[in-house]
Structures are given as C-alpha cells and as structure tokens.
C-alpha cells in the first residue's frame, strides 16, 4: 500500500482584490497568475469567498468568474461573514474576512496585495479598516506590499503597533508604500530569507498564539511606480473622493479605480506584479513554516 500523500502546505488568498480592486476580465487572469505563483513554490492556493451563503475554501472556475464579475457580489469584512451565511449572500472576502476564515481552516499564511488601514482624514471620519483589528485577532501571517498607499501610512503603522502586530520587513528597511518600494517609515525588524521569516512566525506564535503578523514585501523594482507621481495622483483622488462624499466600503475600491484612470493603467500593472510577488513569498513561507511548526515543540 502506498503511504498517504503528504498534504501540501496551503496559502490563503482573498477575493476582494479581484472583485473590487481590479477591472474585469483582467482580474480573472490575475487570480490565476497569483494562484499559480503559490503552486510554483510547492504550496496549495486556496481562494476564499462566500457563494450563496456557503463559505468556499478554494473556488471553482465558475465561482471565481461570478465573484470577478462583481454583479450582486458584496464586499465582506470579517463582521459580515455571519450575516452573509445566514442570509445566503454572495461576496468577496477582504483581508479581515479571509484571515478569520483561514484561521478556521487551519491555514497560517495568506497573500494579498496590500492590507487596509487608517484612511487619510480618519481623525474626522474614523475610517479604519477592519483588517487592522483582524491582524490583532487571528494568528495568520499576511504577506503584503505594506498598506495601500491611498491610506495614511503613518497612522496605519501606529495602529499596528498599538494592536501588537509585528511588522516584518522582507528584504526592506522601510514600510513599503504599495505601488512604491519605500516610505519614510522604518520597520522594526528586517528579515532577508524565508527560513528566518518562518522562525520569526513560529516564535511569535509561541509568545502570542492569537495574533497575526504582517510581512511587508515591497513591489518588484521593475514594476514600482514613481513616488512623486504617485503622491500627486493620490492627493487628487483623495480630494475628489472627499468632494463626492465617497465613504465606507466604497472608498477603497473607488480610490483604486480612480488611480487606475489617472495613471492610465499603470497602478493596475503594479498591483498585479506585487500581488504575484507576495504569492511567491507566501508559497515559500508556507512550505518552510510547515517544518518550523513541526519542530518547534509548543509547550
Ligand atoms: N489589496 C489590493 N487590492 C485590494 C485589497 C487589497 O491590492 O482591493 C482589498 C483587501 O481585500 C482589503 C480591502 O482587505 O481592500 C480593504 O478595504 P477597506 O479599506 O474597506 O477595509
Ligand atoms: Mn473602511
């Protein structure tokens, strides 16, 4: 008899990035590319969504298609999961929802584009992403290109600290600014290889078994956008959103769409490149973590 096949380590992927962050039909292609990037590193990609009230851990082609088209698809944060299940809704999961579900499914590593955070003007609007709360609540390592640069990055980093979420710069000394490789914010800890990154995750969970980690992985250099140009577009998009009173769940997708217009599609290209890169790192990390968690005897 053949020995049972060894389970491949899994990587969680979110679906809001596709449904609300990238245009159709490009988003379907990107979803495939991101999943392939995980597979090529020897891990198994699992894209999360809620379809007609049922939680999906891994999407079939027609399910991904439905979510990517976005029609009748809700944007679901962690707090929306219960209502979505009970009410039979269909929705894409954000970072917060995907962390909650990944944790439930026993998946320790998750790749996204950039997390949500504290929005500009938050001292007035109080708009802070549930992603920050989820990071403080679920023991999952989230690989992202920092937080989306439409946010107030200073305040986002402060919140991560308040919530006790370690931010690990992967091959970087500064907190990446999503489309831009660097920011003026220094990370507390820098790690340059996957083995060490996995050891950091393992040790963190020994100390804090219920808290996530943010792995900050800069956009690849050849896809990065210019800081000055990005700052100008972001300021314009933010002002327009405020003038049009775009708030709540709509704000992040609205800003991403507007930046794509202003940059003539360049932000979309950068977003795709960084999402794929994060998937590669997450794929490697999941494999390595497998060994670390096996050998780290948790007492
Ligand atoms: N990363 C991207 N594009 C996105 C997102 C992440 O490259 O659209 C999504 C994530 O799902 C994240 C959400 O959780 O944006 C944040 O939304 P909000 O600011 O409303 O919490
Ligand atoms: Mn919000």
Structure description:
- The chain is an alpha/beta fold and 299 residues long.
- The protein has one domain: 3-Layer(aba) Sandwich (Indigoidine synthase fold), CATH 3.40.1790.10.
- The protein contains 12 helices and 10 strands.
- Strands 1, 2, 3, 4, 5, 6, 7, 8, 9 and 10 form a 10-stranded mixed sheet that branches.
- Helix 4 links the parallel strand 4 (74-76) and strand 5.
- Helix 10 packs across helix 11.
- The longest helix has 30 residues, at 266-295.
- It is globular.
- The two termini are 35 Å apart.
- The mean pLDDT is 95.
- The structure holds pseudouridine-5'-monophosphate and manganese (II) ion.
- Manganese (II) ion (MN) binds at residues 127, 129, 248.
Using DSSP, what is the number of strands? 10
CA-based shape: globular
Question: What is the mean predicted local confidence, pLDDT?
Answer: 95
What is the H/E string? EHHEEHEHEHEHHEHEEHEHHH
CA-to-CA gap between the ends?
A: 35 Å
Residues in β-strands, percent: 5-15%
CATH architectural name:
3-Layer(aba) Sandwich
Number of helices in the DSSP assignment:
12
What ligand species are in this complex? pseudouridine-5'-monophosphate, manganese (II) ion
Structural class, by secondary structure, is: alpha/beta
- In terms of per-residue confidence, which ranges show pLDDT below 50 for 5 or more consecutive residues? none
Give the CATH superfamily: Indigoidine synthase domain
CATH class: Alpha Beta
- Based on CA atoms alone, the radius of gyration comes out at 18 Å
What is CATH's topology name? Indigoidine synthase fold
Secondary structure: helix percent: 40-55%
Question: Can you tell me the number of structural domains?
Answer: 1
Biggest sheet character:
10 strands, mixed
